[in-house]
Structure formats: structure tokens, C-alpha cells
Amino acid sequence: MHRPGLDPSVAEVRLAVRRALQAVEGTVIVGLSGGADSLALTAGLAFEAPKLGLTIHAVVVDHGLQDGSAGIADAAAAAVRRLGVEASVVRVEVDGEGGPEAAAREARYRALAGTARDAGASAILTGHTLDDQAETVLLGLARGSGATSLQGMAPASDLDGILLLRPLLGVRRATTRAACAAEGLEPWDDPHNEDARFARVRVRRTVLPVLEEELGPGVAEALARTAEQLREDAEAFAEMIDETIEDIVEHAEAGISVSAAALAANPAALRNRIIRYVVASEFGASLTRVQTVEVARLATDWAGQGPIDLPGCRARREAGRIVFTASP
């Protein structure tokens, strides 16, 4: 008797899931929206996790931002229960601070982390795809926010002390839709994903297709590779910063100081990263490119300039050191 072969899209999703699960044990939480990406991810988990002795719990976060959201969330949970996956719906309030997308994301991750802690889970998995990564890189490039944002999303990171995994970052969105179709799953299409008021939607529906048309196929993959390379560079810089800071940073009264000569002796890329690192770790603030360069000039182009007011702190040169103190 001939058995139909496994659909290539399903095989690709399952392989990505299997590789990600090597790092976890016990219970894992999967964020489920009901869309194709998270639905394909959950189906892949339903197949792969039991073979590794893992327990899956799908969490549908209802943001309450659309009419009928409660019914949509309940339907998504019911869909994966039919796959044998335990599922629950968590309803959250979105305060709108930082914009609706950012606020919803913050509420969603908070709910996922809370559920993971309650369940004693070792990891949280989300369904971000290669297309999401490409969009993130393009948005970061457009905003001029530097190499950190161009790194995109990491395959593995930390969420409130819990391992956050994104197994599908190498998988195209078209593949997750094909996987759902092959497995008889009906994804929900969020109307917000068609709303051109959101910058990410404009990138998805207009910018990336134009780039593909004008430059040829493979733009999304190239952007994802760029993000990966920049993360590698960032990891190397982080090690260099850790080694350098021990020698050039000292605690000062009400703040911290850095040797001006040592800063000036370092390459600009490392010098600027040290400045941003010091301000972020000591005062919890982020510096713009312009602010960072102005602080660096206290070391490289010293001409007696006065203190520089920065977010959360002030920088000045004193006795051969750049001194950072909390804002008055």
C-alpha cells in the first residue's frame, strides 16, 4: 500500500522545531495567536515534543483590541486541543503606552512569561518567521537606529529569566501557510496584518514586494543573513567590552567614570559601544548616535567643552576621565 509522502512544508517546520527543542526539558509554553505561523509551530510541537518527553502548553493571549477577540482566542485554543495540545486563553489589558503595537507586544510577553513561571516551564516558543525578521531589519534600517536593531530577533534570548525560542526564524511565512494547509488546519488572518496604518504592514505589503520585484528574489533571506552576521559581531564586541571595561572604568561619587585616554585609544566602534554600555548599565538609559558621538568627543577632541546633558545622566571631563553622574 502506497503512503503519501510528508509534505515538504510540514517537514521543514518539524525539523526547525526539533532543532530548537534540543535545548529544553520538561514543559514548554508556545504563544498561539491562531495565525498560520503560530499554528504551524504548535502543530510541529505536537508532533516533535512527545518524542522528547516534553509537555506543551499553548497560550492564546486575548488583547481585547478587536470585536469578537474572545471568540477568536477560544477558537484558536480549541484548534490545538484537537492536536492533543493543552491550551488556555489569557486575557490582558493593553494600556497603549509606546503605541498600540508595542503595548500589545509588552502585554503579550508579560502574559507568556507569567504563565511559564506558573507552569514551571523551561522555555517559551513563538512563531516569528524569516519574513518577520526581514521586516524587523528593514524597519530598523529606516529608523537609523544602529546595528543593535539591525540584528533583528535572536533565535534564543531571555524573557524575564525564561528561555525564549524562535524556532521558525529560518522558515518563510509561505511555508507555514503551506504546512497548515497540508495538515488541514485553518489559520485565522488578523485584520491588523492588512492595516496600512502600521509601519510593519506597509513594509510587508509594499516595501518588501517592491524590493523583490526590482532587485530580484532573495531579499528577505539576505536581510535575515545580515541580522545573523550583525548578531555575531555584537557578541564579539560584547566580549571585548567586558574585557576592556574592567581596566578603564571606575566608580565615582554619585556615578561612574571612564579613562579618557583609554577611550580615545580604542576604535570608534568599540569606543561608542563602551559609552552606550556604561550609560545603559549605570543609569538605565539609551543614547542616540548624536549623543554618543558628543560624549566621545570629550575624549577624542577635548577643547575644554562643558558638561553634556544626557538621558538620566550628565557627562563631563575631569582630571583625564569622563565622569557620568545622575541628572540633578
UniProtKB/TrEMBL annotation:
A GO term for molecular function: tRNA(Ile)-lysidine synthase activity
Major location (coarse): cytoplasm
Domain tRNA(Ile)-lysidine synthase substrate-binding: 259-322
Binding-site list for ATP: 33-38
Residue ranges the record marks as coiled coil: 220-247
UniProt domain tRNA(Ile)-lysidine/2-thiocytidine synthase N-terminal: residue ranges: 28-205
Keywords of this entry: ATP-binding, Coiled coil, Cytoplasm, Ligase, Nucleotide-binding, tRNA processing
Name of the top EC class for this enzyme: ligase
Compartments, as annotated in UniProt: Cytoplasm
EC identifiers of the protein: 6.3.4.19
Catalytic activity: cytidine(34) in tRNA(Ile2) + L-lysine + ATP = lysidine(34) in tRNA(Ile2) + AMP + diphosphate + H(+)
Record remark on domains: The N-terminal region contains the highly conserved SGGXDS motif, predicted to be a P-loop motif involved in ATP binding.
Annotated family: Belongs to the tRNA(Ile)-lysidine synthase family.
Function: Ligates lysine onto the cytidine present at position 34 of the AUA codon-specific tRNA(Ile) that contains the anticodon CAU, in an ATP-dependent manner. Cytidine is converted to lysidine, thus changing the amino acid specificity of the tRNA from methionine to isoleucine.
Annotated PANTHER family: TRNA(ILE)-LYSIDINE SYNTHASE-RELATED
NCBIfam families: lysidine_TilS_N (TIGR02432)
Protein name stated in the entry: tRNA(Ile)-lysidine synthase
Organism: Microbacterium candidum
Primary gene name: tilS
